[in-house]
Amino acid sequence: MHIAIAGNIGSGKTTLTGLLAKHYGWNAHYENADDNPYLNDFYEDMQHWSFNLQVYFLNDRYGQIQAIRDSGLDVVQDRTIYEDAYIFAANLHEMGLMSMRDYRTYRSLFDKLTAFIQHPDLLIYLKASVPTLVRQIQKRGRTYESGIRLDYLGKLNDRYEKWINSYISGKILIINVDEIHFDEKPEDLHNIINRIDAQIHGLF
Length: 204
Description:
By secondary structure, this protein is α/β, with parallel strands linked by helices.
């Protein structure tokens, strides 16, 4: 079983990944954002470093997916490879922060790599408004995230909605983080687990 958790920056992906891995006894695969050598530079100069950042994430995510499939274990994954292309790279290009040349090169590489991988068995999308994202970003206090612009988060949210509404590659579960506080309320986490069980076991 491969469950992947998608969502904007600050939506709670890492937290939910850990909680679900603990509950089900599955392996957790986390996004290595803090280890990305381009991240600090990117937030200081998005236009200059956008291509480098996205290629690094693409390469790292592809390796992670290969490891998941090769392991044969049940896994909960923090963020998907598809978000890199459909959300972040596309948004950077639309905002003029990634050139057409770089974007075409990136998408060509993405298309070639993803032709060899399978979609997750269940995609969980953490939907959150910009105020919620900002509150949770501030709460975790990562220095490199302090300069994230509100319009950037808003544009990412728009991209997420478009992608999720057109997602037909497998089962999907949408969780409204504005209303469900799984990190603080055990009953909210229990509700999510029940919904996941219904999806993976084919219950109604």
